[in-house]
Amino acid sequence: MTHIAILGGGPGGYVAAVRARQLGAEVTLVEMDRLGGVCLNRGCIPSKALLKSAEVARLSRELDQYGVEGEFRAVNWPAVMQRKARVVGQLVKGVEFLMQQHGVKLVAGRGRLAGGRTIVVDTGGREEIVQADKVVIATGSAPARLPIPGFEPPLVLTSDEVLELSSIPESMAIIGGGVIGAEFAELFSSVGCKVSIIEMLPRIVPLEDEEISAELARSFRRRRVEVFTSSRVTEVGVRDGARFVQFIRDEQQQEVTSQVVVSAVGRWPNTGDIGLAEAGVEMESRRVKVNARMETSVPGVYACGDVIGGYLLAHVASAEGKVAVANAVGHLCDMDYSAIPSGVYTHPEIGSVGLTEAQAQERGMDTKTGRFFYRACGKAIAEGEREGLVKLVVDAATHKIIGGHIIGPHATDLIHELVLAIKLGATAEQVGEMVHAHPTLSEPVMEAAEDVLGLAIHK
């Protein structure tokens, strides 16, 4: 029986552990913190629990729009945080149960490679040696820090600290307008905090299609979230008891003051002090280099998730972990990145997959697009969710869908119809001809596909 040791119990590591057991391997999982990693404990799950409370707060202010009499009183932040802790605790226990159910041996402590396929674990007072046939590195990532004066704690909070705030700040300056920054802006603006976003690039959520980014920026501005794009931060400091962020915009120095300053400038792979150099594992720009089978430069050593860079998404880490252990036990397979969905949990939500229109053009592809706006969707109007659109990017010659982009209600769920379409090589005609139930929020996907052909009914 192959013995696989996995370093890191996040969504890459613990999923890899279960899959390895399903494939008949013996598994030892080394984790220095709580199972579930950043995603479950300090990222995806706690932030979504808080965003749900923020959504309820927002809706409670709009009761009269739905013919409901009532009055919004206040957000009980300690109770919101207690709910978040319960959600996280329940899911951590679920992962712990999975490990027990599948017979995964857990070793609690900080592990590091000791050459070959040996992991030395500091369990807090003593060392435990884990000797395995194959090793999977799944140590995740940590918030990045910029070499800017004042860009350090306690002046600047990372995503970890923000999720543990004991009260709602009166104002917040968020450095970075990507996914993390946008979600924090959504969360805290919805519970009454004055929010400013400072983004170095020309638009927020810059990895999304330009039309999607523009729609979110308009939504934020309607809700009085300040958005400063093309702005390079030069200093963070304190003056007269308030924090300030200085930045250069349009060749002029500007400044935002706030009670709290948050860093949302991305994440760095956790590759320090885990014995990679000593083991001979090849690196590139802080990340572990792997091939399509998740193999590192050292035979028998694999890696997955944030530690290898790339998408930095929990579901991608899980998929890569499955590929890594499948190869570790001899089931040769490659990781397929052709249809990777991503989501931004703002209001409205964003879901995307495949190429943006600009990316396709950069590759020299001849494309066509189809669009449909939620303001013409019956279900969206009935639910009071008129913002947003569905946009499809297709190959002009074959009409195969190569990109799907949604901003609107439940976009992070709806995007999976387009993930499947891209995965299976479906065309706009095939998606447009597929009967969609009425009234549903998925109808705009059908109409956007029909719009590629100039056949959308309700546009």
Describe the structure.
- The chain is α/β, with parallel strands linked by helices and 459 residues long.
- It has three domains: 3-143 and 268-328, FAD/NAD(P)-binding domain, CATH 3.50.50; 156-265, FAD/NAD(P)-binding domain (3-Layer(bba) Sandwich); 342-452, FAD/NAD-linked reductase, C-terminal dimerisation domain (Enolase-like, domain 1).
- Helix content is 32%, strand content 26%.
- The chain is built from 14 helices and 25 strands.
- Strands 3-2-1-7-20 form a five-stranded parallel β-sheet, with helices on one face.
- Strand 4 and strand 5 (118-122) form a beta hairpin.
- Helix 1 (13-22) packs parallel to helix 9, helix 3 (44-60) packs antiparallel against helix 4 and helix 3 (44-60) packs parallel to helix 6 (179-190).
- The longest helix is centred in the N-terminal third of the chain and has 25 residues, at 77-101.
